[in-house]
Structure formats: structure tokens, C-alpha cells
Amino acid sequence: RPGDEEIYINLGLMDEQEENLTGAMDHYKAALIVQPRSAVTYNNLGGVYLKQDKAAQAEECFKRAASLNRFLIEPRLNLASLYWKQEKSLEAQALLEENLTIDPNEERSLFSLIRISLAREEKTKAVDLAKRFLTRSRNPQELVSLGSLFAQYRFSNMAFSFYFKALTIDPSNKNAFLEVGKLYGNIGQLQRAILFWQEGLRHHPTEKSFGELITEARRLLQEKKSHTVLGFSSQRHPPDCSGPFRSSVRIIRGGSVG
């Protein structure tokens, strides 16, 4: 009956949220009986196979979904994620670039393509994509995640751009305060790091990480002073983001279609 496909898809999504993968698969397969050429259903079914660690079946479903509707972004996004995990970066990159031919500002594809470009040491491409993402995104969590990624690859200026954009959107964002302070600390600007952590602590007084980081930075400052002789300071960390403060931000993308 008309509408049954949507009902089964919604039931499958509910099952996924409850981590009932068997139920989700049953509902998606029922949706395919009603509409055998549903790109959305094939994509979501592929997501269930992926959660069950059945990569071959997942790949087949994502490819089928992409062939049925080339304008649906998610199948290529999910297939790219699968290829990335399989260390097939070129294949993943091609799929994401195809998504951007359909929607040049598709944030999930931009996000993943930035990650792959950095891993492949395509620095100019990564920075160009990052600038596009910065002008588009209003998601503080993703901005902080990419800031931490650029910090990891020693692009401190670009990392700062992501952190400050996140704080512009969400002036009390805990992770942004934590990460921007770590970056300042890792390029030797400990006093400025402390100022950001103090501001973060003001917004989040129960977050112990701020106090611990401030204590460590003050210890390093004292150690630096003790090594100062006749006006010559001990060597600072170069502005390449290396240093004692490590990022705690995870970078995750992917999902089903509602």
C-alpha cells in the first residue's frame, strides 16, 4: 500500500536507535518488498550490515543505493567511510568529490574529504576545503573536531580559525576552550593558554580538566623560569602544535537516512 515503505523505514530507524539491528533489518527488507527500487532503504540496510561488521554486504547495498539515485548523498558518504576504514583513500576521495559536484557545500562530504586530504598530505587541497567548511558550518562540535585535526597535522593557524569560529557560534563551548588552550600551550604561549582555560572554567566550574590543565601550565611556566639564565630562555616549542597537551576530541561521521 502507498505509505507502507515510509512506515517500514521509520520503524527500522527506531530499531537502530534502540540498537535492535535484527528488527531494523527486518523492517528495511519489508520496505524493499513494497518498493524494490528504494535508494533510501538500500542505504539504511547497508548501514545495518556495517554495524554487524558485514562489509561486503554493506558495500553492495551502498552501491545499489547510489545507482538508484545519484542525487542521494548518503550512499556515497557511507561507502567512502567504508573505503576509508579499508585504507582505500583514493576510492573514498573520488566518492566524496562526486558528492561535491552535486552540492559544493555539502558539509559531511567536505568534513570527510578534509580528513582524507590531510592524511594524503594534500595540504593545499585540505586548506581550500577547510575555508569552504568554515564559511558554511554552524556546528561547533564539528568545527572543534576539525580544529583538533588541523592541530594534529601542525596547521596551527587553521586550527585556531576553527576553534574561534566554534566560540563565535557557542561562546561557552567547553571543548573549544579546552582545545584552543592546548594549542596555545603547545606552541609555547602558556599564559594565553591559562587565560582560555580560566574562561572555560568560569563557564564550566565543575569541569576538572580546566583546573588540571591550568596547574600543569603553571608548573611548566615555573620550570621555564628556573631554566632562564642571564636573559636566555630555554627553547620553546616551535609553532607546529607539538607539545605536552593532547587533544581529547574524537572525529566521527556517518549515518542512515530518515
Task: Chart the SSEs and their pairings.
Elements: H1 4-17, H2 21-34, H3 39-51, H4 55-68, H5 73-85, H6 89-102, H7 107-119, H8 123-136, H9 140-152, H10 156-169, H11 174-186, H12 190-203, H13 208-226
Helix pairs in contact: 1-2, 1-3, 2-3, 3-4, 3-5, 4-5, 5-6, 5-7, 6-7, 7-8, 7-9, 9-10, 9-11, 10-11, 11-12, 12-13
User: What fraction strand?
Assistant: under 5%
User: Average pLDDT across residues?
Assistant: 90
Which H/E pattern describes the elements?
HHHHHHHHHHHHH
Distance between the termini: 20 Å
Uncertain residue segments: 229-240, 250-254
**Structural class, from secondary structure content?**
mainly alpha
Number of strands: 0
- Please bin the fraction of helical residues: over 70%
Tally of helical runs: 13
Rg over CA atoms, rounded to whole Å, is: 23 Å
Q: Based on CA inertia axes, which overall geometry fits?
A: elongated
Provide tags for this entry:
13 helices, mainly alpha, single chain
Care to describe what's here?
The longest helix is centred in the last third of the chain and has 19 residues, at 208-226. It contains 13 helices and no strands. α9 packs antiparallel against α10 (156-169). It is elongated, with a radius of gyration of 23 Å. It has helices spanning 4-17, 21-34, 39-51, 55-68, 73-85, 89-102, 107-119, 123-136, 140-152, 156-169, 174-186, 190-203, 208-226. Mean pLDDT is 90; it is low at 229-240 and 250-254. Helix content is 71%, strand content 0%. It is mainly alpha-helical and 258 residues long.
